[in-house]
Structures are given as structure tokens and as C-alpha cells.
């Protein structure tokens, strides 16, 4: 794909599919493929296997590779595939090269998991991965509020294949400044905190947003995107109001149930099991009915 095509794919609903598990604890490949087809049939055109909603950190390397392969296979030209990679540099590079060889189009680099992250080290980390796969688009996933836009500009100058940014710091004013310091037009800016933050981040320069909710209702996510693309913030906020409680449940207690709530909604619709791996947990029995009621009132 050309950089222009990759940029267009990021200026969209960037879906983060869940990873369903079977009763024996292994990845339920059949359910996974069925959920991917449901997203594609619902109009989703950008898929991110091995994202946080897919429980990236709870998956084994073999599972992550299998999920990448299944996603590319199901996408089959219908969607752009942006594969989540991370951990240490050799592991991330190996995963990025596997994504390339499998036929994916881009990689999203998860935030470095390390107690001591320097700004220059952040650049070095992402540069090593980007330079290993010059054929792929690269999208840093930024959650660090201390990182400066100047460092991202430095990375972009060194690596032309860094085409977009998933920005997930919950501060719209900081995002606006960061994007302009890094180069507003140099990168595609993806609101990395999904629908709740999409309206405010779009007003500051984002043109796409990530979504876990899209697993449950592709129609709602796409409705919000269309409203934001046309500058119809009134309609966008009506969608926001419909999804507010669902997203509040996901964000509660430091987002402890972020993925759990999505899987519970899917389970209530009979689309996959609610099973989730530690350190996450299944939703307590007394909270399941509320999630089911919300999902039952949405277009699916």
C-alpha cells in the first residue's frame, strides 16, 4: 500500500477486535474468525489484531502470530490490517517482520513496558522497529504524558514509514499542543481513547479513533465517525450519550474491566464466551445484567 492509502486507513474507525477463548482456555479460532467477519460485514475497514482490547499482554507469541494470520486471512483485501507489536526490541521486530511476511499493512507499536523510559530511548525503541520493516506503515501508541512532540518529530524525520500516531493521553489540550509540536500534517492522528474522547480530539486535529465498542455495535461507531467527518458534533454527541454508560463501566477502577465489559456484551448477544485471562477478570454476576441491557438496545 502507498503511504496515502495507509493514512486513509487510519483516518477511520480503527477496530481493536477481542480475542475469544474456548472452555479449555485456548483461543477460540472459530469464534475469532466469526467476530472478524461480523466487523467486516458491518463496514469496518481497519483491523488491529493484538491490541489491548485483544488482550495483547495475556497472549503467547504463538497465539499472537496465529491471530495475525487469521486476521489477514479474513480481511482478504476488505480491510487494512494494523498488527500490534511490542515487548523488548527483538520480540517486537520479530513480530513486525512476521506481520509483514503474513501480508499485514502496518504495525502499531505498544507503549514500552519498562520502569525507566527516557525520551531519547523512546525514539531509539521505535526507530529500531520502524527501520526493521521499511515496507510497513508504523504507528506508535502513545500513553506517556511526559513525551514531547519534538521527540515524535525526530522519529518521523528519521523514519518516513511512521505514518500515524495512536494518541492515548486523556487530555485534549495536551493532545492539541503535542500534535502541533510534532507536526499536525506530518502524521495521521488517531484518538486512542476511543469514542468517549473522539469528539474533543477531532476538534483538535484527530481524523480517526480506535474502538473496542465496535466489536458490539459497528453501526454506532461508524455513525459517530461520519458525524465527526462532516463536523456534525451535535449528532456525534448524541451517539456519545448512547454509549456513555457502557464506556463508564469500562473506565471504572482504572479501566480494570475495559475488555471484560466488551466481552460481557458479546456474551449477552451469544457471540462469544465472556472468558478473560488474568490479570483481568470476568464481570461479577450483579453487573452483567446492566451490560446486557445496554447492548440489547443498540443496533447490532
Automatic annotation (TrEMBL):
Keywords: Lyase. The keyword S-adenosyl-L-methionine does not apply. Transmembrane segments: none annotated. SUPFAM superfamilies: Aldolase (SSF51569). Coiled coil: none annotated. Pfam families: DHDPS. Gene3D superfamilies: Aldolase class I (3.20.20.70). CDD domains: DHDPS-like. InterPro entries: Aldolase_TIM, DapA-like. Belongs to the DapA family. This is Dihydrodipicolinate synthase family protein. It comes from Streptomyces omiyaensis.
